[in-house]
Design goal:
Blueprint (H helix, E strand, L loop, with lengths): L3 H24 L4 E4 L5 E4 L5 E2 L3 E7 L11 E8 L19 E8 L40 E8 L2 E7 L4 E10 L2 E2 L14 E10 L6 E2 L4 E7 L2 E7 L10 E4 L13 E10 L54 E2 L2 E2 L8 E7 L6 E5 L1 E4 L2 E6 L18 E3 L7 E9 L7 E9 L14 E10 L22 E7 L3 E9 L4 E9 L14 E7 L3 E3 L11 E5 H4 L8 E8 L4 E9 L6 E5 L1 E3 L25
Parallel strand pairs: 1-12, 2-13, 15-27
Antiparallel strand pairs: 1-4, 3-10, 4-9, 5-8, 5-11, 6-7, 6-9, 7-8, 11-13, 14-16, 16-25, 17-18, 19-24, 19-26, 20-23, 20-25, 21-22, 22-24, 26-27, 28-33, 28-36, 29-32, 29-34, 30-31, 30-33, 34-35
Amino acid sequence: MVDFRRMIPVLAVLAFLLGSAVTVSAQTPALQCVTAGATNTPVRSEGLTELVGDIQIICQGGTPVAVGQALPTVTVQVFLNTAITSRCMSSTTAGCIGSYSEALLILDEPTPSQQFGCPTTTCANVGVGTGAAIYGNAGTATLNNRNVFQGIQTASNAITFQVPIDPPGTNQRIIRITNIRANANALGVSGSNAIPTSVQAQITTTPFNVLPVGGLALQAVGSVQTGLTFSLRNGANDDSLSSPFVAQQCVSKFDTGPGSATRIAYLRYRENFNTAFKKRSILASDTNQSATSIQNDLTLGTFNTETGFTPTSTGGSNGANLPAATAGGIKLGDADWGTRLKATFNNVPTGARLYVDTSATSGTDVARLTRDEALGFSLVAGTAVSNTVVELTVTNNTATAVWEVLQSDPTSIATLNFGVYLRYAANPGATPASPALGSATVSGSYAPTSTATTATQTNVPRFRDTGSPLKLFNVVLCATNLLFPFVTSANGFDTGIAISNTSTDPFGTSAQVGVCTPYWYGTAFTGPTSATPSIPSGTAQTILVSNTLSNVTGGFNGYMIAVCNFQYAHGFAFVSDLGARNLAMGYLALIIPDPPSPRSASPFPNAGAGSGEQLGN
C-alpha cells in the first residue's frame, strides 16, 4: 500500500495548479456572445420594404487585444426567410447584389457625436488594451477606430458585414444590426386564430472562434399582419355604403355639398395595429414631410417612422463618411416618404367629375393630399372650388388620389376618412349623352404600389397593390317608360301620338331634356325606330304612326312602348279614321314603373303577390 504521507506534496502541487487555473480563468473567461433577443415588431403584410426589428449581440469575456495591435476581422452575415429589401446605396441594379446596402452594424451603442463610420468595406481597428469602447482617435495619433459599418447585399436574402472585433474582457461589447427591410408580403398572413407569420433572421459569424455567437438559431424580427382595412361610408359618414350612390343622367350634380359638388361617399382607411401608419421621420410636421431626417440617437428607442437609423455622417471632427452615405439624394436609412394611402377610381363615366378632401385627421394622425404616389411630398391645396376639396384628373376613365401620413400616433389606432364628391352638368340629349351611363368603382391601398420585390435604390417604402374594387356610384338612365296599348295605321285608320316633357313645373323640379325611342310590337312589324328629336322641358313632340312606319305593308296594328331618357314624360294617343270624320278616340299613355331586368309581375312590396304592374298615367 502506498504511504499516504508520500502523496501530500503531490496533492499540494495539484491544488496549487488547480487554484492558479481557476484564478486565471476568473480573470480572463472565454469570450462568449449571445443574441440578446431581437425586437419582434409588427410589419404590414402589404409591405415590400418593411423595417424589421434590430438584432443585438452581446459579448463578454476574452482577452483584449494589446494596445496598437490589429484586431481580427469577422464576417457577420444576416439571413432572412424572405428577400432583404433595404435600399441599395451604391447600385441602381435591381437586387443590389454585391453593392452597399443601407443596413448597418454598430458597435457599442455610440451617441451621435461618437459615431465613426468605416469608409471602406472593412477598417483596421487596433486594440486599446482593455477592450473598452474607445473610438475615433481618442486623443492619440495612432488610434482611429471605427464603430459604424455598412453592409453589402450578398444574396437576395443576405447582408454581409466585415467587422474588426476586440474581446471586451471585463467590459461588454454590444453589436447592433439595424436598417434591415424585408419583403413581408411574400410571407403572407396566417389564418384566423393563428399566431402571425414571422419574419425570421439567422446570424452566422466567420471565424466562429473569434466571435462565437450562441442563443437561438432563428430570431423573430417581425410579425406579419394585415396593416390596412379599406371601406366605403355613405355621404353623411354615419353608416357603411351598402349600395352604390345612384346618379341620374338627367339630373345635374352641382347644386349641393362642398365645392358645389355632391358628396357621395367617404373613403375610410383604418390601420389594423398602432404603428401601421407612420410619418416619414421624427422631424416631419403636418404640413411638411420632406425635412431631412435625423434619427441617430440610439437612446430614443423605436422611432415608429418609415425612416430607420440615419447615422451621423462624419462622426464629429475625426470621423469619415461611410462608403455610400447617400443614394439619389436620399440619406442612408432615410425613407422617401411617410405612409401613403391611395384611392384608384376606375370606370368613371365620361362627363363625370370627381373631387376629394385634401386632408383627414384621426386624433393626432394627419394625412394630406400629395401630387404623385412615387414622387416627393408636394402638398395639394384646395382649388377655387373649395379650400378643402380638390378635383381629380380623370384620364381614360381612371383617376387616382394619394394622401401621405404627416403625423402619426403609435399609441392609438387611426381611422382616416376622405370625402368623395361628384359633379356634372346633365345633358342626356347630347350626342353622346353626358354624363355617360356606367358604374364607377374605387379601390384603396397603400402607396406607392410596386412589383419590385427585391432590393432597389428607390421607392422606400413601397407596397403590393392589394386593393379590391368596390362599387362607388352608378350613372343611370333617366327614363319614363310610356305604354300606348293600341296604335294603328291600318284599315283606313291612323294614330297620332304626343309626348310631353313636363319636368318644368311650379314645384322646383330640375328641368330635363332628352329623346324618346319608340319600340313597336305587332304582327306586321316589331322593333325600334329612330328616336324623336330632343324634347326640351316644357314642350311636346308629336308622332304620326303612318309616317313613322310608312314602310310597313298594309299598315300597323299593335302597341308601342316609348322609352324616354328623361323623367316626367306623359303621353296621349288619338286614333281616328282619315280626317277624323266618322270615328275618333283618345287616351293617356300608361306609365310602366322602372323595371328590373326582366320585369317582375309584383314590383311593389305592398301590392300583394300577383298584383301586376299597377300601371298609371
